[in-house]
Amino acid sequence: MALPVETLGLLLFVACLVAILSRRLRLPYSVGLVAAGLTLSIAPLSSEVPLGRDLLFNLLLPPLVFEAALQLEWKRFGRELPLTATLAFFGVPVAATIIAVSMHFGADWSWIGAGLFGMLIAATDPVSVIAAFKEQKADPRLSMVVESESLLNDGVAAVGFAILVGIAVGQDATPVALLSSLAWTVLGALFAGAIVAGFILLIAGRTEDHLVEFTLTTIAAFASFMLAEHFHASGVLAVLTAGLIVGNVGWRGAISEGARDHVTSYWEYVAFLANSVIFLVIGIHEAHQPFALLSWPIAIAVVATLIARLFSIIPLSILFQRSRLRIDRRFKTVLVWGGFRGALALALALAVPEAVPERLQIIVTAFAVVAFSVFVQGLTMPPLLRRLGLLTANS
Predict the structure, then answer these.
(1) Containing domain of residue 107, as a range?
(2) Per-residue confidence (pLDDT) for residue 132, from 0 to 100
(3) How much of the chain exceeds pLDDT 90, in percent?
(4) Three-state DSSP class for 391?
(5) CB count, 10 Å around CB of 353?
């Protein structure tokens, strides 16, 4: 179902009002958007606002991941990579396992349903995390660690989810088959992102027209995603790869020096649009979820998600305690409580196969965890950052 033009216009107008009010009230923008979406849910036009995997995952997520990766300076990203990669590549499976076990024994879900939910809700959502930390002007190193870890574990969760979906629909689940699938999902994504970014930069280097460069970078974001997904690799990892290459190699000459600020501003605007639509749509559809029917599974999921995040951060961060990458207690606290969930979790929940008996419960429970993340964690994050002294002086 397409989004009608008049409905899109209304959503963007509301997003502008929310942005103005949020800044004046010093509230997180995402919280204001979801609250506005809840209010809009009673409007007649709300029935015309679609929510599906295609909208969230295929249309809105690629530009957001690309914009975030575009802003990551490789030198700083690479400096923190051993830490952030460890938290992502090992932390996500740990968190997913804890959540899956909790839902299987606590809510009596099947192992495949519990496993899919555990994987889709284990990773923090880059849309929510990056938006929140940009607004609050948090400590530069903290922002880099949180944003990088979020982008990486986003990709890890997408890969793990794809493997579990394959098992759910009856694909070969032998160790060799699973390892082969994992290798292709990751390496295929890196290859797709690098190929698309390289090709786009080759063309961009032949022009100094910033409008053409806008268009080429837009193609890079969506083409890398679609190419990877077409060949059953991770679209999210492909976009992350393309964004990192364009943002670090492209600035050295392929993207004209005079166009750099234009391209950056363009992508900030695109991210603003996508971010606005995502959270407004989430708010509109939150109001129609039958939360009361699943109060016990929802309670288990919220608690298990917080506990899983704790156990996926604290033990792994101890490995770096005696190195230059050590993170202190304040950073650990923010990493645990700042594990927001958002569009990625809902996009993956909507992609759960019909064959999974708990599909509807998974979708409703994912909505509930996202609501908790936005309103409870989102509203308490600014005072937590201030209390821990992790805001920059000009914030």
Answers:
(1) 51-387
(2) 64
(3) 41
(4) strand
(5) 14
For residue 29, is pLDDT > 70?
yes
What pLDDT shows up at residue 224? 96
Phi-psi region of 174 (alpha: psi -120 to 50; beta: other; left: phi over 0): beta
**Residue 161 and residue 88: Cα distance in Å, rounded?**
14
Structure-block tokens of residue 274: 């996508």
CA–CA distances in Å: residue 215 to residues 209, 263, 273, 360: 10, 10, 16, 39
Letter string b/e over residues 267-306, b meaning 16 or more CB atoms within 10 A of that residue's CB: beebbbbbbbbbbbbbbbbbeebeeeebeebbebbbebbb
- With pLDDT > 70 as the criterion, what percentage of the chain qualifies? 94
Q: In this structure, is residue 206 part of a structural domain?
A: yes
Say if 14 falls within a structural domain: no
If you write DSSP's letter for every residue of 289-318 in order, what string do you get?
A: --GGGGHHHHHHHHHHHHHHHHHHHHHHHH
Reported as a single tens digit per residue, the pLDDT across 267-299 is 989 988 888 888 888 888 887 788 877 889 999
Q: What CATH number is associated with residue 179?
A: 1.20.1530.20
Residue 195: how many CB atoms within 10 A of its CB? 17
Amino acid making up residue 24: R
**Inside any domain, residue 173:** yes
Is 178 domain-assigned?
yes
- The pLDDT of residue 222: 96
The per-residue pLDDT for range 356-395, each reduced to its tens digit, is 999 999 999 999 999 999 899 888 888 888 898 887 655 5
As beta bridge partners, residue 257 has: none
- Of the chain, the end-to-end C-alpha distance in Å amounts to 41
Query: Within 10 Å of residue 115's Cβ, how many Cβ atoms?
Result: 25
Provide the domain count of the chain: 1
Measured distance CA(28)–CA(382) in Å, rounded? 8
Q: List Cα–Cα distances, 77 to 72, 107, 142, 163, 287, in angstroms.
A: 6, 39, 12, 28, 38
pTM metric for this prediction: 0.88
